[in-house]
Amino acid sequence: MARTVNTGLQDAEQVNESPSSSYIYKDINLFFTKHPVSDDVTSVTDVQAVKRSVRNLVLTNQGERLFHPEIGGNVRGSIFNIFSPITQHEIRTAVFDVIRNFEPRVIVEDVIVNDPDGQDLDASRLRIMVHFSLQNVPNETHEVEIFLNRIR
Predict the structure, then answer these.
(1) Averaged pLDDT for residues 92-119
(2) What is 2-149's CATH number?
């Protein structure tokens, strides 16, 4: 399987048009950069648009979106819990559920939740890796890396 890895802001800044896709997904650029020719807001397409959507769903808490309070996984609140296998399982389940329920373009293959600082029980940050494929290109695997930081 082909594997594409882009992390952090690199995911949000890139534009990726996959030639193997029969349908191109398109979203506005949330950095609101101006298109040099049309003076309109630039757009992101295809895999980058889906990655951005997955990241937004994971980082959204329930009740934050107007008129759709049911959208969200409440993952950010878990950063204040003591990191244990139970917390890890709860976060993993919440990420699976929110993507499965609200992102129909994605097939979630795996979600990895760990402490990047070495399994410290008093972790101040968590790393969530979401491995997925697109519905229209199921043989390519992509991943989104999300860091949750506790600010004291």
Answers:
(1) 87
(2) 3.10.450.40
